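#lab-general

N.A. 3:47 PM
ok so I finally got the sequence cleaned up, no stray characters, all 266 residues accounted for. can someone with queue access submit it? mine expired

B.Y. 3:52 PM
send it over

N.A. 3:53 PM
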Amino acid sequence: MAVITSISVKKAQETRYHIFLDGEYAFSVDEEVLARFQLKKGKSISESEMQMILQEDEIRKGVHLAVQFLSYRMRSKKEIIDYLERKGVEAPFIDGILTKLSAYHYIDDAAYANAYVRTQVQTTKKGPNVIKQELQVKGIHEQQIQQSLSLYKDEQILEHAIYLGEKLVRKHQQLSERALKQKIQHHLMIKGYSEDQAVRALKEIHYQKDEDEEWEALQHHGLKAHKRYRHLEKKEYQMKLKQVLYRKGFSFEQIERFIIEVNESR
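B.Y. 4:20 PM
back already:
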C-alpha cells in the first residue's frame, strides 16, 4: 500500500491535481476523479485502486476531448470514436467515454441524423441518395437513416431536382434535345436522386427544343466537326460527321440535311 503524502494543483491546468505517493510524484488526476475516490493526504492506496483511479482519469480526459470536439457542432457516435482514436485514446477507454457522453446526452445519433437531413434540405440541393450515403459514412444505422430521410418531403425533392435540371438547361443550350435530356437525368442521379425522381422532374423541366432551336444546336456542333474533318476524303469526312452528330443526339434526317448543306459550300 502506498500513502498519499501530498496533493498539489497542476499550474497549467487548475482542474487537475498532482498526486505524490510516499514523497514522490506518482500521477495527476482530474478534480472529479479526486473527489470521487476521496483522494487526500494520508490516504492509503492499493495497486488495484491506483489502476481504477488511472483508468477513470483516462476516461475523464477522453470526455473532455470529446466535449471540446462537440462544442463546434453535433457529431455522430462514429465521428466521436474516430476523433478519439486520432487523438491517441486507447480502445479500452473509449467505451467508458461513450457511456459517460451518452449519460450526459452528448451522443444521440437519432437527433444527429434528423438535424443533418434538415440542414442538407435547407442549405443544399442534394438528393436523398447522396444524403443517405453521407449518413452511412457517419455511422448512422440504416433504420435511423430511413426515418430521418422521411423529413425530406416529396415536394421538396421534386422542387430541388427541377431547380438543378433547369440550371443545366441554361448552361447547355447548344446540346440536342436528346443529349440534354440524358445529361439532366444523369446529373440528377449523380446528385442523389433516384431514376423515378429524375423522370418526374424531367416532366416539369422545359428542355424540349423546337425545330429551329434543334437546327441551331446541330449547326453549332456540325460546323465544329466540319472544320476538324474537312481535310478528309468525302466518304470518310461524311462518316466522321455522322458519327459525331449522332453521338450528340441529333436525328439522321437533320444530320443528312446538314451534310448536304455544308457540302454545297465546300
